[in-house]
Amino acid sequence: MFTATNARIASIDSSTVETEIALLNLNILSAVNSGGVNVTVTRSTNTPLNGNVVVGTPMTLDPNYYNAWQTSVSNVLASGSMQSVLDNFARLGYTISRVSADGQYINWQISW
User: Fold this and answer.
1) What residues make up the domain containing 56?
2) Based on the structure, what is the number of domains in the chain?
């Protein structure tokens, strides 16, 4: 039987969160290889992956994440998923924040 805490963790520990983290990590690696100390990932960021190009990330492409971040819509799953991403990079020593250039989608700004 799930406790409430276990149920929430199972809901948030999703492929979306893991995909988001993986794509952000690939962009960090690319920036590091270019001598950078920060990266901004948007819905139009091209991330090379095994000979293909991934455009954006699950969270940067979905306006529901922006709406949950701005609390214009209550979305516990989206908010919890974004917090998991923030917590992951903060634990690794990065500075990470959400910003928006258009008031519809989130962008991730990460520095080290």
Assistant:
1) 4-111
2) 1
